[in-house]
UniProtKB/TrEMBL annotation:
Recorded name of the encoding gene: 11405740
Keyword terms: Glycoprotein, Glycosyltransferase, Golgi apparatus, Membrane, Signal-anchor, Transferase, Transmembrane, Transmembrane helix
Residues that span the membrane, as ranges: 21-40
Keyword Glycosyltransferase annotated: yes
GO cellular component term of the entry, any: Golgi membrane
Main location: Golgi
Its membrane topology: Single-pass type II membrane protein
Compartments it resides in: Golgi apparatus membrane
InterPro entries in UniProt: Glyco_trans_34, Nucleotide-diphossugar_trans
Protein name, per record: Galactosyl transferase GMA12/MNN10 family protein
GO MF annotation: an example: galactosyltransferase activity
Pfam families in UniProt: Glyco_transf_34
Family: Belongs to the glycosyltransferase 34 family.
Organism expressing this protein natively: Medicago truncatula (Barrel medic)
Amino acid sequence: MTNAKRKRGCSIPNRNGYGEFPILKATLFVLLLLLCALWFKRNQLTILCPNKTMSEAIQDPPEKTFYDDPTLSYSVEEPMKQWDKKRSHWLQLHPSFAAGASDRILVLTGSQPTPCKNPIGDHLLLRCFKNKVDYCRIHNCEVYYSNLHLHPKMDSYWSKLPIIRSTMMAHPEVEWIWWMDADAVFSDMEFKVPLDRYKDHNLVVHGWSNMVYDDSENKSWTGLNAGSILVRNCQWSMDLLHVWAQMGPLTSNYAKWGKILTSIFKDKPFPLPDDQSSLIYLLSRQRRKWGAKTFLEEGYDLEGYWIATMGKLEGIQNKYDEIEKKARVLRRRHSEKVSVWYGEMREPYLKWSERRPFVKHFTGCQPCSGDHNPSYKGDVCWKEMERALNFADNQVLRNYGFVRKNLMTSSVYEVPFGYPRD
């Protein structure tokens, strides 16, 4: 090579034809691979959840919890031991969930795993689920829908027990599991459950003390209704679910319990045990153990029989409109997120007026199978379900600027400013 070429910075090619820095290039390539590996290790959770970075993603500490115990069972057949301790330990390791846990609710509902026989059954179940999703969004509740039987023998009304048990374990951050039957509908979307009233109780169910506890003619298998119940996420509830399930179809004593219950509840129309009469039996026969922590709610419609307000919803809506015509603050347009606040502002005006039923339960209608109680004539069940669902949906829809023209139509119109006065 000449001196001129050296001055221009030309290198001497090696015998393989590569530059004179093969080791440096190889080193850089290896470093690049290491950097890629480190990046992937650090961001593997972000890759699975592309909308969150590692600092934003909900993380699970490496310390062992009850989830790491291979002997722990989710089955309602197996007793749960030391659940309060297990749950408390998990919350300590997840402090972001521990904050505000005492007021956290998960609404749990579900239906059968097969399609409905009733031609409009699936449509009605979908609308009933939408109704629950709307309520949960307004009140910042979680919601879970199950369409499976977690135990092959626990179907129909018994299917709620296994799923409540599993949900308690899947959501230790939740204080209350609120089971609602598929055919139960929220019809007052502003009403907030008074959890402070239940601070000393673990089970809340709509019912009447004299029909549950008194040994008299008033004792009835309908003394309470298990279609809408609040269950605290605690050891007491785990024990109750386990004992309660033993009266159901998963044990060999199922028929025996049927005879016992029909001998106690003279108005029970069928011989096999059901979840409702079984719960009443446990509360009344072991009142100190189970009844002391159970709140029988009579103050509002935690579960209201749909017949009681049949034909009244339009009138109730007119009364609410009259209140808003007089109270300017209630006519103000607002976002959906502050609906509960407006509900609280409305309370003083409701002292002298009939209020919306909180929950309407269409017991006996069987919207999926269509095999409704024969005493309900024709299609009255389906019409009343549509009316109740539209009544509730109007309360939601108004925040989006529209309402229905009447409770039996899907036709809507834009709400004018100052509605309902103008």
